[in-house]
């Protein structure tokens, strides 16, 4: 059974699949780390989402001057992309700080902290 916050969530498509893809009581890890060495790097996942939103917005651009709902969706996607860019900047800043402690040995190597 999904966590209570997920049960009440109104989401469909890929996000719903990720959230509910396991019958295990613990969530399936998505991000790369010691417990999930084959997962996604946070910055790569954020960039993939940005790329998808750019494609969606390019399809919406022809309709934004005609339909106010299309404009609202377009603007919402722009805001989400801004948040995703901030995630990438924050993650890169963290990586640069960790680099001062030594080289990255990857998710199967020795952690720096």
Helix and strand topology:
Blueprint: H1 4-7, H2 14-20, H3 42-60, H4 68-99
Helix pairs in contact: 3-4
Quick structural overview:
This protein is mostly helical and 113 residues long. Helix content is 55%, strand content 0%. Helix 3 runs antiparallel to helix 4 (68-99).
SSE class: mainly alpha
Catalogue the unreliable spans: 1-13
The sequence of SSEs as H and E is HHHH
Q: Report on the biggest sheet.
A: none
- In round numbers, the mean pLDDT is 83
Kindly estimate the percentage of residues that lie in beta strands according to DSSP.
under 5%
Based on CA inertia axes, which overall geometry fits? elongated
Total strands: the figure is: 0
Total helical elements: 4
Radius of gyration computed on alpha carbons = 18 Å
Distance between termini?
34 Å
Could you walk me through the main structural features you see in this protein, from its secondary elements to its overall organization?
The chain has 113 residues and is mostly helical. The protein contains four helices and no strands. The protein has helices at 4-7, 14-20, 42-60, 68-99. The longest helix has 32 residues, at 68-99.
Short key terms for the protein model shown above:
single chain, 113 residues, mainly alpha, 4 helices, 0% strand, disordered N terminus
